[in-house]
Amino acid sequence: MKIALADNRDSFVHNICGLLERVSPRCQWTVVPTDVLADSPLDYDALILSPGPGLPQEMPGLMRLVEHAAGSVPVLGVCLGMQAIAIHFGAHLRQLPCPRHGHRSPLTVTDHSDPLLATLKTLPSPPHVGRYHSWIVDPSTLPATLVATSRDEEGNIMSLRHRTLPLFGLQFHPESVMTDCGLDLLAAFLRLVASLLR
Q1: Which residues have C-beta within 8 Å of that of residue 9, sequence separation ≥ 6?
Q2: Which strands make up the sheet holding 146-151, listed edge to edge?
Q3: Which DSSP string corresponds to 109-145?
Q4: Judging by DSSP bridges, how do beta strands 93-106 and 128-137 pair with one another?
Q5: In this predicted structure, what is the pLDDT of residue 198?
Q6: Cα(182)–Cα(172) distance, rounded to whole angstroms?
Q7: Residue boundaries of the structural domains of the chain
């Protein structure tokens, strides 16, 4: 399995690499700058959009890459990556009154049919996740093609999926030490990719 990790100029990308190594040591992954991936053939089995600073529209190549990849390969967007997926399908972002940088929140799953979050049903208590963001997807603008799959303690969207395509987004950071379920979520994504390759 070949995974492209789109680097949005954020140090967290290296933590995601470490998580990939722990989940699947045989998985081949390559870190590529987002703007380079956006203008290249997607010769990969799946794509992970890394976190990054600012807004999705400000990151060179990010919105082009989402357009290029949507419907072509399975995609997992993390933080900025999730926001880019949401914007691509017509949602808008809203600035939080209080940024959540280094904030740990309980995660409430609202869609147990999500193949990534379904693995969390076996956990004894709601998992906690690490957050590093100032913007969220405005739920009032979420299009019918996207489903909010989990929320934080204030009702903000913490993850989403596309209704028919293998596109998933996590507003929180699965690679953070504050996230209880990061390994489970990434393993579920890789299992999904493997099932689509059969």
Answers
A1: 33, 34, 52, 53, 59
A2: 28-33, 2-7, 46-49, 75-78, 167-170, 157-162, 146-151, 108-109
A3: ES-TT-TTGGGGGGSSS--EEEEEEEEEE-GGG--TT
A4: antiparallel
A5: 83
A6: 10
A7: 2-197
Q: Name which of 74, 85, 100 is nearest 173 in CA terms.
A: 100
What local confidence, expressed as pLDDT, does residue 122 receive? 76
Which residues are catalytic, by number?
Answer: 79, 173, 175
Q: Looking at the whole model, is its pTM more than 0.90? A: yes
Q: What pLDDT sits at residue 99?
A: 86
CB 146 within 8 A of CB 114: no
Which of the listed CATH numbers 3.30.450.30, 1.10.287.3510, 3.40.640.10, 3.40.50.880 matches domain 2-197? Answer: 3.40.50.880
Tell me what pLDDT residue 173 has.
94
Distances (CA, A) of 181 to 91, 96, 122: 27, 24, 11
What is the phi-psi region of residue 61: left when phi exceeds 0, alpha when psi lies from -120 to 50, beta otherwise? Answer: left
- Give me the residues of the chain with pLDDT under 70, please: 124
91: three-class secondary structure by DSSP: coil
CB 48 within 8 A of CB 22: no
